[in-house]
Design goal:
Blueprint: H1 14-17, E1 39-43, E2 48-50, E3 54-56, E4 58-66, E5 72-78, E6 84-91, E7 96-103, E8 106-112, E9 121-128, H2 138-174, H3 178-194, H4 196-200, H5 205-210, H6 225-232, H7 250-272, H8 280-298, H9 310-335, H10 337-355, E10 358-359, E11 362-363, H11 371-388, H12 391-396
Parallel strand pairs: 1-4, 3-9
Antiparallel strand pairs: 1-2, 4-7, 5-6, 5-8, 8-9, 10-11
Helix pairs in contact: 2-3, 2-7, 2-9, 3-9, 8-9, 8-11, 9-10, 10-11
Amino acid sequence: MRKSLYSAGALLSLSALVLSGCTPNTANNASGTSADGSITVTASDTECKVGASEVKAGKVTFKVTNNGTKVNEFYVLAKDGLRIISEVENIAPGLSRDLTVELAEGEYTTACKPGMVGDGIRGSFKVTANPDAKPIAADEQALRDQAVTQYTAYVKDQTEQLVTKTEAFAQLVIDGKDEEARKAYAPARLHYERIEPVAESFGDLDPALDAREADLEQGQEWTGWHKLEKDLWKPSAAENDGKEYKALTKEERKKLAEKLVEDTKKLNEEVHADNFKLDVSAIANGSKSLLDEVVKTKITGEEEAWSHTDLLDFQGNIEGARVAFEDVRPLLEKKNPDLAKELDKKFKAVETELAKYKSGETYKFYNELSKDQVRALSDSVDALSEPLSKLADAVLS
């Protein structure tokens, strides 16, 4: 789950979202673009310097360097500042990462998020028409269309299954059938974890559904899966920062469970709407984003702090990343067959490592794994992360 890019309830206009810490950009500024035409982004704890504020439509690569002291993220958002077009996460101090995305003509918002909290440091970004753009060859366009069709169908199927299983889970919570609800919790979430970057693209829905207690901004209402998780696996005072946990009342549980269903149905409606569109860059970058979710909260054990069902979330993220990769694979094999072979090998290595901890349809609790086992999982993910970061650039080349 990604920490919110906006304050709770604050759906502001673009002009109101531009923060004073954002350095104005200069279109086609030579000092802000690399020799290959990519755009340099210099992020720090207080600034987000984007080397150009205007580019021509097509493939755009942002080279993001974190010169600050906090882990940072970089986002390209729609003009409203809510819908995420693409992103690159977990940029440690002193490191650089690239984000390659295909942008159509229009107005966008860029954002750096030092510490991965708060609204982020934002600026406006414009994409103009590109009269020099070469038309995509018919055979490549066919492969792109095929990838989009297949992945869109996958996303819709996963949200449909998510609605069904969430309704069943919520009813168990409302009926006070805690043991059954605990068993239904992680299998229902699996469908969300498989398509998490798509869910995150709809602004306020992801925080409403999937916010962890540690993610909350001041004054933000906590709703969603993890609040119910905490109530189902009631922590001791020692596990709850020394405070005695106060259980939810029946009325509070009912309200929370019903909102979870309501928000899940909203997500399903969004991906079934006529204006829901994906493109190849979103699919390729989504594959990497899913792996980043594993690195950011699953490996650390932060995601399922009370249930310790992180390995099923881990499975969902890896499965979703694999599906996205497989859908663009025909394009990748046409352009970079060696990368396709390497990714297949590294995906299999992660899946093999994860399978060691599976028992029937579920997994060992994450807090039962030894430090060496966690390290082995982490190493297999790291080995996949590097080649997967090249996927978007390869399929869009």
